[in-house]
Amino acid sequence: MSRVGVDLHLDVRGPKVLAGLTGALRDAVRTGRLTPGTKLPSSRSLALDLGIARNTVVAAYAELIDEGWLTARQGAGTQVADRRQAVAEPRPPVTKQQSSDERPLHDLRPGRPDVSSFPRAAWVKATRRATEHAPGSAFVATPPAGRMELRRALADYLARTRGVYTDPERIVISSGASHGIALLAAALRVRRTGAVAVEAYGMPLHRELLGRAGLRTPPIPVDQHGARTDRLAGGGAVLLTPAHQFPTGVALDARRRAAAVDWARANGGLVIEDDYDGEFRYDRKPVGALQGLDPDHVVYLGTASKAIAPALRIGWMVVPDSLAADLARVLGGMGVTGIVEQLALAELLDSGGYDKHVRIMRGRYRQRRDELVEMVAGRGESVRMPGIAAGLHALIELPRDTEKATVASAVSRRLAVYGLDLFRHPTVPRDRDALVVGFGAPSPSGWPSALNALSRILPDRL
Q1: Model pLDDT, residue 86
Q2: What angle is formed at CA 305 by the lines to CA 203 and CA 348, rounded to 5 degrees?
Q3: Cβ atoms 363, 370 nearer than 8 A
């Protein structure tokens, strides 16, 4: 429920009133003083309180709405946006059917784990143990880079499971992977980086976050061997998903992994490695993180969203020493994630509970992918499923010029699924038709009916 009549106590500084007011409001949301759903004063009221022109308040509200910090609806006034929800998923295609309030019967959108299998008992136990043994000082303030307990536990876990070369001091805790990208984007602007190359198919939100920071996002092609890192040129940075390219599902070829690192070394560049679902590979042992090839030129991003639940809002960055100072300036002395959640996750990692949960979910997701492969194989050559056996989503290629109709058919059946075109870089020509199918979200009891609903919208055997 929205809170009405909030006294903002804003400190508007600087010679430019609009910039000062916009910055003060943005900082109030970023630091949590203004929580999601908080209703802000009307532009007239705030202008009177601050002794400034009403037009200045209107302009500040409009700018923050465009940036995603605030929302405005007729009859509801201006409120603080729930940015955590906004970064949890890519924006769906704008269609009449998908803009309705009717909830889907089956959710096969990518990037979503089975939250019905959240390890409740293990999490409660870890939370209790962590809070019982935490020093009193732990509840005073969140260190900017996160609690050392969690950073130590992650350093051990990442080295053991992903081949990440690091120590706790080089790990920074974020409120999820997308928040980590936003922080990195700001740090890159501090370094006067002008562009971050991105994969031709990828998360629209990530491109948007980079763009908001004033960074250009030139695309690099993606084929059956992953991103064409051999085409990187000049300096700057590149954002890659090497273990399991999102959304095409391929792994980055070994030669291209080396090419990315060679490019970064030769040009003083930076590789941002989004290892969003690296724990889940089903046909063999997961390939180690790209970061292990050159910790001085690769930023490693990870998250607990896929392994446990998005609502935890815990991610991590392993950063090179050369980036640490700029990132510290961006953080500005403010911690970003709840203390209790950090301590509980550290306890879950140290106790082996995290590994146990990942093993259990890996088995369940492997079975779902096998069933998806079997269903698609029954369609003959009309549809194909390329990519490696990994992650929580798969690409189902369709006959030419059938993607739009297939997505429309899904909407009519209240099946939530995305077409590949949603993830295409806007400057890249459309070159194929496909569905990006997430098989993680349904509960165990709901998966069979979701798979059956998917089978009904796919083209028949040709």
Answers
A1: 40
A2: 155
A3: no
